[in-house]
Amino acid sequence: FDGVDLKLGANYYANPNLDLAGHPQRVTSISAFNATRTTYSNVKSADKAFLYVNDSTAGETVSRTLFQEKAGLYWEGTGTVVLTNVMTSTGDITVANGCVKFVDTLVSSWKNAGVVTVCGSGRLEIPDAGTFGADTEVRIDGSDARISIGDGIVQTVGDVFIDGRRGYKRGTYGGLESSAQFKDSRFIGRGVLKATKGNPLGLFLVVQ
Q1: pLDDT tens digits for 9-52?
Q2: Average pLDDT over all residues of the chain
């Protein structure tokens, strides 16, 4: 299917599964069939595959979809998706447009994410220090991409890549108003990412 409004689940089947089987798919939205029930959906794939979501709905859309095995979320619409009840998700995330937003680590985190990429005009909002795991690789590409980190938050990750290059020091990365060791205007807020696996030596330029 391509470009459909994907609704998962029904009254009698609360937690449905969608197996991509290694094949990327594109949909205009992804939501629970029965929005009144506190249920979740599973998108999985034994081989790496993205579910591309081109959702341009005004306001915020709440998603309770788990991405398992090597299935990942590729958000390319202009809308905003709030991810909740996704704590056990394991796939990668790409935000190419619009906004992917987490709420708090009690109900909203993706600790097992492998690679989180923000590119194009995408925006990622990180409210808590436990949103991602200590091995997650974070990439930000392009002058219009933004990562917003809550004030006072220190989110530990594995690596931070800026425009495809890794060769930076281990340490903290954040916006111009943050206390980060390495600053870039594409980071918003006073929180920081703490990279633990970067090269011990490197160069980082402040982007004004």
Answers
A1: 544 455 678 899 999 999 888 765 555 555 677 899 999 999 99
A2: 84
CA distance 111 to 126: 12
The partner residues of 157 in beta bridges, in order of sequence, read 195
Calculate mean pLDDT across residues 50-77: 89
Structure tokens belonging to residue 2? 């391509």
**Closest alpha carbon to 180 in 143, 158, 152:** 152
**Contact predicate 50/24, CB 8 Å:** yes
Indicate the DSSP class of residue 96.
-
The alpha carbon torsion through 92, 95, 96, 101 (nearest 10 deg) reads 160
Q: For residue 152, give the amino acid letter.
A: G
Give me the half-sphere count of Cα atoms (radius 13 Å) on the Cβ side of residue 38: 3
Gap between the Cα atoms of 187 and 44, Å rounded: 31
Cα Rg, the chain, nearest whole Å: 17
